[in-house]
Automatic annotation (TrEMBL):
Keywords: Signal
UniProt cross-references to Gene3D superfamilies, sorted A to Z: alpha/beta hydrolase
Signal peptide span: 1-17
Biological source species: Mycena venus
Secreted as UniProt keyword: no
Domain AB hydrolase-1 positions: 82-343
Protein name: AB hydrolase-1 domain-containing protein
Length: 364
């Protein structure tokens, strides 16, 4: 079982203008999970026999930024979004902290529409604990930590004495962050703490669809000053905006070149395990809540040149197969958006879609 409790609350501050109040929190998580001995096991141990698994029992700190509207309506008071970033990103993906890029903040966008959020860093990433052994950072351990954060949100206040626990937790993931939410839905099934899942940039993935791992060398080789003491299993993209350009639409007029530079400058790490285990979303889940999948029509990894996203009806039928027990499953192809759909000029389209689904799921 996974156990955790809230730890230190940092300073409270107002962000994104007068409509949103945000605070930093650190949440200890006790992870008790079975991990594949081989972190390159593409199904994260879900299809492995016992002899190929190992037991992880460790406590880590998960960092997050909690944002809540200054004026909170009764309708939304019990609803929170748990935001989970993708591979080589961190919680800043949901709110690029640069004045020029404020329009790209989903935390601010949803706060303006009366919704609270908690954007977290994965274990091993950002300001969360970074295990010395990168093979401890796999989908099983990270997804378990995310699920426990969701449970905490429903059982205790993350700001003691300030607000009550939430009654509805909606998970929103980006790319591999959607993978963590999916992995948790597989392992938790009907007992999942999530009242709805919004999975972005994450269609069913087959071997050969990901960029080669050679584009993600050891982080310590890419930036020795920042990551020189890390296990070589911690990886990141090479220092080149052209490498991260795959996360954007192919038309350079669709995004700011400054955003791409900012993206490359502020990138974070992933691990070999969390790179290979993204394929777990082809496995069946008995999750029973509603699910929405949002993918950009100009996603260069999964849509452009594949024909996959041209027929939404066919795409929806294919994406529904691993989710036989869900209350509902909808697929939206966001026109013009790239893989990291929060960061291009079309971001408001997906943002409005996310808010629509959050409100829909919260009413169920």
């Amino acid at each position: 079982m996974l156990l955790f409790a809230l730890s230190l609350l940092f300073h409270l501050y107002v962000a994104y203008g007068a409509s949103c109040r945000c605070s930093s929190v650190t949440i200890p998580v006790h992870v008790d999970a079975l991990l594949p001995k081989d972190p390159m096991d593409m199904y994260g141990g879900l299809t492995s026999n016992a002899s190929s698994l190992r037991h992880l029992d460790a406590t880590y700190n998960v960092y997050g930024v909690f944002c809540q509207p200054v004026t909170l309506s009764l309708k939304n008071a019990g609803v929170i979004q748990l935001l989970v970033h993708g591979f080589t990103y961190n919680s800043q993906y949901w709110s690029p902290p640069v004045e020029e890029f404020r329009n790209y903040s989903y935390a601010a966008h949803s706060c303006d529409r009366g919704l609270s959020s908690l954007a977290i860093d994965w274990v091993g990433v950002g300001l969360s604990s970074r295990p010395a052994n990168s093979s401890d950072v796999q989908f099983a351990s990270c997804a378990a930590a995310v699920s426990q954060v969701a449970r905490r949100l429903k059982t205790a206040s993350i700001l003691p004495g300030v607000l009550l626990p939430f009654t509805k937790v909606i998970g929103i993931g980006h790319s591999a962050g959607s993978g963590l939410l999916t992995f948790g839905a597989i392992t938790d099934g009907a007992k999942s703490p999530f009242d709805g899942l919004i999975l972005t940039g994450y269609p069913i993935i087959e071997p050969g669809e990901l960029p080669p791992i050679s584009l993600a060398p050891p982080a310590r080789d890419v930036d020795p000053l920042r990551w020189g003491d890390l296990d070589p299993g911690y990886i990141t993209t090479i220092n080149s905006t052209s490498t991260r350009a795959v996360f954007y639409p192919p038309d350079p007029a669709s995004f700011s070149p400054r955003m791409l530079i900012f993206d490359d400058f502020t990138k974070d790490v992933g691990t070999v395990g969390t790179f290979y285990q993204i394929f777990t979303n082809s496995l069946t889940s008995q999750y029973t809540g509603p699910v929405a999948k949002v993918i950009g029509s100009e996603d260069q990894i999964f849509c452009v040149g594949t024909g996959r996203c041209a027929n939404v009806t066919a795409l929806t039928a294919a994406e529904r197969v691993p989710w036989p027990a869900v209350e509902s499953l909808e697929v939206v192809v966001a026109q013009g958006s790239g893989h990291s759909m929060n960061l291009d000029f079309f971001a408001n389209g997906p943002f409005n879609t996310f808010v629509h689904f959050v409100n829909q799921f919260a009413r169920l």
